[in-house]
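Lest this sound abstract, we think one record worth quoting, the chain in one-letter code, the fold tokenised, each line plainly labelled:

>
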Amino acid sequence: MKSSLGDAINSNVKIPFHRMLAYASTDAAGNLLYTTVTTFILYYYTDVFGLSVAAAGTILLAARILDAFDAPIWGFIIDHTHTKWGQSRPYWLWMAFPFAIFFILMFWSPDLSATGKFWWGLITYLLFGICYTGVGTPITSILPNLSNNSDERIRLNSTRSIGGMIGYFITATFTLSFVAFFGNNPQSGWRNTALILAVIGFSLLMFAFFDTREINKPKKGISIIKSIKAAKANWPWFILVMVFIFYWLGNASRTSVVVYYTQYNLGHKDFASILNALVMFQIIGMVAIPFLVKKFRKSYVLMAGMFLAAFGQILISLTGHSLIGLSFAWALASIGTGISVTLPFAMLADTVDYGEWRNGIRASGFLTAIGSSFAIKMGSGLGGWAPSVVLAHAGYKAGVVQNAGTLAAIKFSISWLPAIFFIIGGLLILLYVKFERNEKNIRTTLIKRRGELSED
């Protein structure tokens, strides 16, 4: 019964605040670099690096689809990792440096031919994405092993998301100002800004590595076949993966055209920084989650977040040239995205329990890799590509006065396009409700089962 008692004790242990901060620094580092890419890379490619919008869109689509499939590979690797530091934690030590280096190279702006620039963009974007998966997958895979208490997992995840929001706020709000301040021209400005952000991101990941601890450490590796079997009939996991893909489709499509909208539709390019700063309203949604899930089911809270995000995006189409109206709509949508981007990570930890309960296999690396890194990459890649298709079809050309059709395409891409994605994701989460009702019974059964196995 020792294992059973251990599980019961661990389920009630409070995570120290400094350790929660260490966990939060992982998402702060990831967002500091990854958000720079998802928010500005399309604009950087077309208006700074000199690629056509079609070529830039091709890079976003091809690289994201290709490296999305490295997520299960990283999951397998993590499930087979056994070190004195645990399964997930060591990857912040091993992958922090290449993650920072390829981020810098993406914004290096070498003087190449059009073909050379295309391949430089594709290769550096692809390698950065692979490194991001190596850093990002452990962020989610470690959560089921940091605590056995569902409420503690939600607290950890909310704190982590706030850390990610701080990383997002810094890069989304100040990147354009950094570029202007640290360079004599746009190329050197982006290069120097990337260097600074990379150093900060690397340091945060080192802090995370040195101060996190895993309490659940499987004694032996899981075969690839067993990892895949952990997903068999794991319907709550599959539903969450689909919901998260649609969230990232909506989020990437809305953020990738912010600079285009403020520059060409409003004539106030710098207002993009204000809008990006207003994304800090996500913190309201993030902080509210622990309180909301005590009164309502997690699935209902997530659905409400998706619908609120969609409503805010639709409002943007009605604000015209009102900067105040646009700010209100953007902030409202951000509260919804704050809920929508945070809650699925905690719910994924519950689907790991479901997979162990149903199939007898605890494949936290594989399941969370697909549920987080794969969903993020596939959703953000397609979400960044979709507006590029709309703009290319409308005849967008960088740096010139856009015609009415192009302006309408930009407006559609920042309002209705993300709203459609958010609504689909919100409707899909309804399928999760019946599984959530059984979570407490599943957790109780697992604790008893682990105790029986220990006795054998």
